[in-house]
Amino acid sequence: MDYSIKIGGEAGQGIQTIGETLSKVFSSAGYHVFTHQDYESRIRGGHNFFQIRFSEKSVMASRDKIDIIVAFDKASIEQHERELSEYGQIIYDSSTLKQKYEKSYFLDIPFTELAVKHGKNKIMANTVAIGAVHGMLGMELDILIKIIKDTFIKKGEDIIKANIDSAIAGHDYAIKQCLKCSFATAPFTKPKMLIAGNDAIGLGAIASGCKFYAAYPMTPSTGIMLYISSKAKEYGIIVEQAEDEISAINMALGASFAGVRAMTGSSGGGFALMVEGLSLAAMTETPIVIALAQRPGPATGFPTRTEQAELQFALYTAHGEFPRVIFAPGTPEQAFYLTNKAFDIAEKYQIPVLILTDQYLADSQWTYDNFDISKIKYIDYRLRGDALKSLKEYKRHAFTNNGITPLAVLGDSKHLVVADSDEHDEEGHIIEDAETRVKMVDKRLFKKLPLIHKEIEPPLFYGHQNPEIVISGWGSTYGVMKEVVDELLSNWDIAMLHFSEIYPFPPTNKFNYLKVLKDAKITICIENNATGQFAKLMRTETGYSFNQLINKYDGRPFTIEFLMGEIDALIR
Amino acid sequence: MPSLDDYKGQDPAWCPGCGNFSILKAFKDAMVELSVEPFQLTVVSGIGQAGKFPHYIRCNTFNGLHGRTLPVATGIRLSNHEMLVIAVAGDGDCYGEGGNHLIHAMRRNINVKLFVHDNQIYGLTKGQASPTSMEGIITKNQPFGVLSEQLNPIALAVALDCSFVARGFAGDTEHLKWLIKEAINHKGFTLVDILQPCITFNKVNTFQWYRQRVYRIEAEYNPEDRIEAFKKSLEWGDRIPIGIIYKNNRPIYEEKIPVIKDIPLVRQPFDITRIEKTLKDFY
């Protein structure tokens, strides 16, 4: 069992709700699920889709071949009919599409008519469709019914009954009418958790004790703010919607300076506005975590689509010279743990840490058995309360052997905390002399950097142990690369290197990934951008050049078939 | 009880005779009279001559970026609403680069005290026009004279229903000290625009120019009458009013946030074990 379902329609037709409900059903059934979304930058109309892949085996990318297309608009048929797999089916409602399709793989299901008849409201058409998919797959409705009950508990019995009746109607109709449906689903097992990249970053932030998040809404980073907001009351977090991104980062810096863990997030255009604040964080040695959710630019391009084209921007943006850390998680699981590591490192070294994600990862849902909370690191590095009071003297930027001066919480003692964006002395007051400037740069940059470098983990190595072919990538291409390696391993000595801790560039002493590359015949860097930004970074940092590059920059993520085809063309 | 000595900071690098000296004196006197200890307050500033202000007193300080004083002050105040948070800015800093933040700080009504050193000129960059420069004034960078209309921060603040709007004058230190104390004692966002002659670059709006025009607002004036406040805010020219022009009792932003109703954010503990429960949401 390895099926893909695509729900297509206009914005505003509830495509996402159907997709999320079905994904939830599959993950509750214990299946592995991977979903991704494709939507336009508009509130209503256009063509959107939600794609779900599920299997009893691990899945971590989308396929091109679709087994069930649920079509709510004609575009779903015009654009995706050719994606249908050999035994695939398209379900649609001829009364709403105002068209009948005669080919054998079309199944006309009167979503609206059944909704009105059984759910007493045409709005139930979506539930009919969900029920119909169950019927086609030969799945019973138990899990769905439980989800309906949980979802509508506050809306009352009538709504619950209308939804259940609609689902049953769709289910039964599909069973009777879909004579060609030959799908079979695996037995249910233990429910899995289903989580998207943005939620994983938000959850990671909360689990790291983040207490302040300020941002200006910008796709695809908004989901992080929304998730943290939804938990603000429970966890005691202030989520401030700032007037602009400049304010957002400065507010977060103010909060961090005052003594709480703080974060901001944006996408390229918004992050561009934060850049001066990034330098400010560095100069004042104020910890901050910044999520940079990439989307195709420049200013600002393809607002709802995906790209990995802000790596060089994240690396080199901001004025002056200072240490920064950049993480690029490849999965929601990595996003969760790396967000935690981002908070830990930001606080420990009093530096800015960036989390690079993108639309694809932000919206993609993955399934897991669990996240391990015991792996979460939470150390309060700040000087506060009695520990601070008992100090005889405190200087915010006092020179120390390792360049790190404990960050004191203002107001907790008689000690004063002084920060300055201009160069400053140990107390934090403006200076102009050359000698102090050099000592401060040494403190902030040269003393901390080797320590920070030691924290960075090497890339993940997967596949053949002595590979002739090595594919490499960073961030959200993890899943598709891994699946492609799995597919190609039967014929080729292939492996992958996935980089999620990108800067400082991982040292080779923990694992000599450079040797792996140098020993291979063909090395390919796979990136969702036009210019091979990571390949350039690799060359700059290590002198190593990949033999080949595969770049995709149409705003869409790699699919398994597409990447296989590209790799195949290079290695044959 | 704090003394003036407790507030003694670095030696100011301002021009001798600068209006900023009297603001500094009025501020220190006000702090001592209000019995605020240096560690109980945080002064936030941006860039410019006013931006250096916190270095010349002893207290918690965040001297950040040009125009970004208010967002930083907002972040500090939201994290620790028991902290007295003072924002110090210049006219270019606050009305030019930071205009957007000013508007939204007034909307939020965050309980931050903003004091603007308004010398109607860019001093640190050596004499360009500022948003409050009067129309027609010739500078090196405005050879045809300032072509834009002078920004009226007082009228802007009244229009935005800012919780406390006042104007002070660096040449009347006693009155300024009183205004600073009134602003600090007021609950809500306060804008105190302080006329502060730049003796080096502003050859028009001099101490003498102001002394001929500035007058203390009449005792019978009611600053809670917004329409009258509008009228008062428009007075500029032969007569320039100083004092409290407008105030209201709007609830402050911090009090509307349930999360910090009982304890300031900075003192709230974090319990990681609860995450297990939250993880269940994803099943």
UniProtKB/TrEMBL annotation, chain A:
Signal peptide: none annotated. One of its GO terms (molecular function) is oxidoreductase activity, acting on the aldehyde or oxo group of donors. The keyword Oxidoreductase applies. One of its GO terms (biological process) is response to oxidative stress. It holds the Pfam family POR. InterPro entries: 2-oxoacid/accept_OxRdtase_asu, Pyruvate:ferred/Flavod_OxRd, Pyrv/ketoisovalerate_OxRed_cat, Pyrv_Fd/Flavodoxin_OxRdtase_N, Pyrv_flavodox_OxRed_cen, THDP-binding, Transketo_C/PFOR_II. Keywords: Oxidoreductase. Residues 204-442 form the Pyruvate flavodoxin/ferredoxin oxidoreductase pyrimidine binding domain. Residues 11-171 form the Pyruvate/ketoisovalerate oxidoreductase catalytic domain. This is 2-oxoacid:acceptor oxidoreductase subunit alpha. It comes from hot springs metagenome.
UniProtKB/TrEMBL annotation, chain B:
Residues 53-194 form the Thiamine pyrophosphate enzyme TPP-binding domain. One of its GO terms (biological process) is cellular respiration. Pfam families: PFO_beta_C, TPP_enzyme_C. InterPro entries: 2-oxoacid:Fd_oxidoreductase, OFOB, PFO_beta_C, THDP-binding, TPP_enzyme_TPP-bd. Keywords: Iron, Iron-sulfur, Magnesium, Metal-binding, Oxidoreductase, Thiamine pyrophosphate. Its cofactor is Mg(2+); [4Fe-4S] cluster; thiamine diphosphate. Residues 198-261 form the Pyruvate ferredoxin oxidoreductase beta subunit C-terminal domain. CDD domains: TPP_OGFOR. One of its GO terms (molecular function) is thiamine pyrophosphate binding. This is 2-oxoacid ferredoxin oxidoreductase.
